[in-house]
Write a structure and sequence with these properties.
This protein is an alpha+beta fold. It has five helices and nine strands.
């Protein structure tokens, strides 16, 4: 079924795009939610009138995406985590970790849009991640993983020596003297 998108639909397209979708998908999901309108001469004419508005909205998204790209590429993230011997992390740095760190700096980036080569980072070092933006635009962000060893606390109280149990009745005393003999 041929439809025109009434608004942006993830994994399908943007407002004003003409798409050919399965009949059931259109009837059961897209049409009831108002996400699309059927492709007819009337709806095509309606979208032709709105074409300038739609193009202005897309141009604004492109501009915002380019601005976000330049800001992201100038950012340098640093993760200070606990490491074991040989610089191996106890945990891992994932796309979720990067999304949380970016959120702390004021960026709203979905975890799914962040791509780390190898999916996870388990060693100390400098790495690059790709962030997918609008219309295939990508930002390359650099981040450093620094490690520090966890300091083990020394026990402040001396270790007590085990004492032998002293016999507290006659049977235990007799048993102990028999063992010594």
């Amino acid at each position: 079924m041929k439809v025109i998108l009434n608004q942006d639909v993830p994994n399908l397209g943007e407002i004003g795009d003409v798409k050919d979708v399965a009949n059931g998908y259109a009837r059961n999901y897209l049409l009831p939610r108002g996400l699309v309108v059927p492709y007819t001469p009337v709806t095509v004419a309606m979208f032709e009138k709105r074409k300038a508005e739609i193009e202005a909205r897309k141009a604004e998204k492109r501009r915002l995406s380019a601005d976000l790209k330049t800001r992201l590429e100038s950012e340098e993230l640093v993760f200070d985590v606990v490491v074991g011997t040989g610089g191996k992390l106890y945990g891992a740095i994932t796309s979720t970790s990067l999304a949380e760190e970016l959120h702390k700096k004021g960026y709203e980036i979905e975890r799914k849009k962040i791509e780390i080569p190898g999916r996870i980072i388990k060693n100390v070092g400098t790495y690059k991640a790709t962030i997918h933006l609008y219309e295939g635009e990508q930002a390359l962000i650099k981040f450093t993983v620094k490690g520090h060893e966890e300091k083990k606390e020394q026990p402040s109280t001396p270790v007590k020596e085990k004492r032998r149990r002293e016999p507290n009745n006659k049977k235990d005393a007799e048993k102990g003297s028999e063992e010594q003999a």
